[in-house]
Amino acid sequence: MNNILLLSLTVFVSTLGQLLLKKGVHLVGGVSFNNEIIFEIIKIVKSPYIMGGLLAYVFAMVLTLVALSRVDVSVFALFTSLSYVLVIFASYFFFNESITVVKVMGTSLIMFGVYLIVKQS
Protein backbone atom coordinates (compact mmCIF):
# COMPACT_ATOMS: atom_id res chain seq x y z
CA MET A 1 0.00 0.00 0.00
CA ASN A 2 1.46 3.36 -0.91
CA ASN A 3 1.98 5.96 1.77
CA ILE A 4 -0.64 8.46 0.54
CA LEU A 5 -3.29 5.74 0.49
CA LEU A 6 -2.23 4.58 3.97
CA LEU A 7 -2.38 8.12 5.34
CA SER A 8 -5.76 8.71 3.68
CA LEU A 9 -7.16 5.52 5.17
CA THR A 10 -5.84 6.52 8.60
CA VAL A 11 -7.56 9.91 8.31
CA PHE A 12 -10.81 8.36 7.12
CA VAL A 13 -10.97 5.73 9.88
CA SER A 14 -10.08 8.28 12.56
CA THR A 15 -12.77 10.64 11.26
CA LEU A 16 -15.28 7.81 11.17
CA GLY A 17 -14.45 7.08 14.80
CA GLN A 18 -15.10 10.68 15.80
CA LEU A 19 -18.43 10.76 13.99
CA LEU A 20 -19.57 7.46 15.49
CA LEU A 21 -18.64 8.63 18.98
CA LYS A 22 -20.54 11.89 18.47
CA LYS A 23 -23.63 10.04 17.25
CA GLY A 24 -23.42 7.57 20.13
CA VAL A 25 -23.02 10.25 22.79
CA HIS A 26 -25.96 12.13 21.32
CA LEU A 27 -28.18 9.03 21.31
CA VAL A 28 -27.40 8.08 24.92
CA GLY A 29 -28.13 11.61 26.10
CA GLY A 30 -24.57 12.61 26.83
CA VAL A 31 -21.98 11.13 29.12
CA SER A 32 -20.98 12.68 32.41
CA PHE A 33 -19.38 11.01 35.33
CA ASN A 34 -21.33 13.11 37.83
CA ASN A 35 -23.70 10.20 38.49
CA GLU A 36 -22.86 6.67 39.44
CA ILE A 37 -19.87 5.74 37.31
CA ILE A 38 -21.07 2.16 36.74
CA PHE A 39 -24.28 3.39 35.08
CA GLU A 40 -22.28 5.68 32.79
CA ILE A 41 -19.99 2.81 31.79
CA ILE A 42 -22.98 0.53 31.09
CA LYS A 43 -24.56 3.29 29.00
CA ILE A 44 -21.36 3.60 26.97
CA VAL A 45 -20.88 -0.16 26.46
CA LYS A 46 -24.49 -0.64 25.36
CA SER A 47 -24.19 1.94 22.56
CA PRO A 48 -23.25 0.35 19.24
CA TYR A 49 -22.20 3.76 17.91
CA ILE A 50 -19.82 4.40 20.79
CA MET A 51 -18.40 0.89 20.61
CA GLY A 52 -18.04 1.26 16.83
CA GLY A 53 -16.27 4.58 17.31
CA LEU A 54 -13.87 3.04 19.81
CA LEU A 55 -13.22 0.13 17.45
CA ALA A 56 -12.52 2.59 14.62
CA TYR A 57 -10.06 4.41 16.90
CA VAL A 58 -8.26 1.14 17.66
CA PHE A 59 -8.01 0.38 13.93
CA ALA A 60 -6.85 3.97 13.28
CA MET A 61 -4.14 3.49 15.90
CA VAL A 62 -2.89 0.36 14.14
CA LEU A 63 -2.83 2.29 10.85
CA THR A 64 -1.03 5.12 12.64
CA LEU A 65 1.72 2.77 13.79
CA VAL A 66 2.16 1.43 10.27
CA ALA A 67 2.17 4.95 8.80
CA LEU A 68 4.69 6.24 11.33
CA SER A 69 7.01 3.40 10.40
CA ARG A 70 6.93 4.58 6.79
CA VAL A 71 6.77 8.40 6.77
CA ASP A 72 8.27 11.27 8.73
CA VAL A 73 6.21 12.25 11.75
CA SER A 74 5.99 15.82 10.43
CA VAL A 75 4.35 14.55 7.23
CA PHE A 76 2.07 12.26 9.23
CA ALA A 77 0.96 15.01 11.62
CA LEU A 78 0.14 17.46 8.86
CA PHE A 79 -1.60 14.90 6.68
CA THR A 80 -3.77 13.66 9.52
CA SER A 81 -4.91 17.22 10.14
CA LEU A 82 -7.14 16.60 7.12
CA SER A 83 -9.45 14.84 9.57
CA TYR A 84 -10.40 18.33 10.82
CA VAL A 85 -11.52 19.18 7.31
CA LEU A 86 -13.53 15.98 6.96
CA VAL A 87 -15.14 16.41 10.38
CA ILE A 88 -16.28 19.95 9.59
CA PHE A 89 -18.02 18.87 6.40
CA ALA A 90 -19.38 15.62 7.83
CA SER A 91 -20.70 17.51 10.87
CA TYR A 92 -22.57 19.81 8.54
CA PHE A 93 -24.25 16.92 6.72
CA PHE A 94 -24.81 14.50 9.61
CA PHE A 95 -25.30 16.78 12.61
CA ASN A 96 -26.54 20.02 11.02
CA GLU A 97 -23.59 21.98 12.42
CA SER A 98 -22.81 25.29 10.77
CA ILE A 99 -19.91 25.98 8.46
CA THR A 100 -18.64 29.47 9.17
CA VAL A 101 -16.26 31.68 7.22
CA VAL A 102 -13.61 31.09 9.88
CA LYS A 103 -13.99 27.30 9.51
CA VAL A 104 -13.67 27.58 5.73
CA MET A 105 -10.57 29.75 6.04
CA GLY A 106 -9.01 27.37 8.56
CA THR A 107 -9.73 24.28 6.49
CA SER A 108 -8.34 26.01 3.41
CA LEU A 109 -5.08 26.67 5.22
CA ILE A 110 -4.90 23.06 6.38
CA MET A 111 -5.56 21.75 2.87
CA PHE A 112 -2.95 24.08 1.38
CA GLY A 113 -0.39 22.99 3.97
CA VAL A 114 -1.05 19.32 3.25
CA TYR A 115 -0.74 20.00 -0.47
CA LEU A 116 2.66 21.63 0.03
CA ILE A 117 3.98 18.79 2.17
CA VAL A 118 2.69 16.04 -0.15
CA LYS A 119 4.07 17.86 -3.20
CA GLN A 120 7.48 18.13 -1.54
CA SER A 121 7.59 14.48 -0.42
Give an overview in words.
With 121 residues, the protein is mainly alpha-helical. The protein has one domain (3-120). Helices cover 80% and strands 0% of the residues. The chain is built from six helices and no strands. It has helices at residues 3-27, 37-45, 48-68, 73-80, 82-95, 101-120. The model has no long low-confidence stretch (mean pLDDT 89).
Looking at how many chains there are and whether they match, the oligomeric state comes to: single chain
Give the overall average pLDDT. Answer: 89
Poorly predicted regions are none
The number of domains is: 1
Please indicate the percent range of residues in DSSP E strands (runs of 2 or more). Answer: under 5%
- Cα end-to-end separation: 16 Å
Give the topology string: H per helix, E per strand: HHHHHH
How would you summarize the topology of this molecule?
Blueprint: H1 3-27, H2 37-45, H3 48-68, H4 73-80, H5 82-95, H6 101-120
Provide a concise account of the structure shown.
The chain is mainly alpha-helical and 121 residues long. It has one domain (3-120). Helices cover 80% and strands 0% of the residues.
Give a quick set of tags describing it.
single chain, 121 residues, mainly alpha, globular
